[in-house]
Amino acid sequence: MRGRAAPLPATGDGTAHQQRAAASLRALLDDGQIPGAIRSSLAADFARLEAMLAKLERGELHIAVFGRVSVGKSALANALLGEDAFEVGVLHGTTRQAAQRSWREVAGSGVHLIDTPGIDELDGEARERMAFEVAGVADLVVFVVDGDLTQHEYAALQTLARTQRPLLLALNKADRYGEDEVAALLARLRERSTGLVQDLDVVAIAAQPVPVKRVHLDAQGHEQVELVARMPAIEALSARLGAIIEREGKTLAALNAGLFAGRVADEVGARIAQARRELAARVIRQYCLAKALAVALNPIPVADLLAAGALDAALVMHLGRVYGLPLTRSEAGSLITVISAQLVALMGAIWGVNLVASALKGLSAGVSVLVTAGAQGALAWYATELVGRAAEKYLVAGKSWGELGPKRVVADIVASLDRDSILREARSEILTRLRGAA
Length: 438
Prior knowledge:
By secondary structure, the chain is α/β, with parallel strands linked by helices. The protein has two domains: 15-268, P-loop containing nucleotide triphosphate hydrolases (Rossmann fold); 274-437, no CATH class.
């Protein structure tokens, strides 16, 4: 089969699909684990989820009429409705905002038409954005053109295809072309939309045919010319819409709701992950500073390094709470042992310098003590940064080192961090704190 993959077949009347989709939306809307700040930042998306849930419960199906300005979107919507519900005008971009009207009942579903603003109107970026948003939550989209696809239309068609909803491509104003020209245009449109629209969903219509001139004699025998309006020629499109709605209308509504809920859930997950990363970074920095000062201020050689190990355990346990994976003290100790073993293997020279600095600190006095303490504290800071980042990787992976194992994970973290930059920042912060406390 050419074009898009065939739509999902309906099971029965699609009611089961709607029920599953509605349950998915309710679960997301009622999820008490979503932080209030993230829910507030996605307020518009959650409001749309509520609207989509209500639409599912009412059994509605939404069809968006989409396209650039002046191709006859509003005229088509009116022709489908059989009444002038949407404004039609000669001005460029008559439709300024999305409008919706109930169309008809098909297979137990209330079908609604949504007329959208033109996608390429001059200075109409906001309306174009609105059009994409409306089409993004519609269950089916009728993309209206009046000739071969322009570059802008083709790009828009590709964007809509990525929303994974059925697309129909309607060649409007077909009455202005001869039969051979219409056939050639349809063939061209089917060729260019291959992979985006099914061949049978590319149809020719005339939503508002050009009036015909009629000459008649008046009472005085003079010739008079009048323009006689013609009925819209939209049978091919109307029949195709009816067939799709009859066969899988409820399934389409359920699929669209499920896809949107999935996108919102992904965005929620991404924002939670980002918030956790930012919080974890602050927690790691706090423990880096605490450990660095503990090492720098402890006058007992070597003992400062041993005592500061308790801070690493506290850090790892704190990170576990940040990522919703609490660690016992025993688990934290085991994790630090694994990380430290890899760090010692990779950075034995650094630990040697650290131990020497610790010993020297107890034998020094005056400014040299301050300088040595700052250097050793900076190394302690760096070591805690490494422990924190490695523990974070372990937690993000769900308490797992993954296929690469701890050796590779720790090595990658060491390679990714700018040691000199971290040491400079740590030393500066430590010395500032030490002088302030003096």
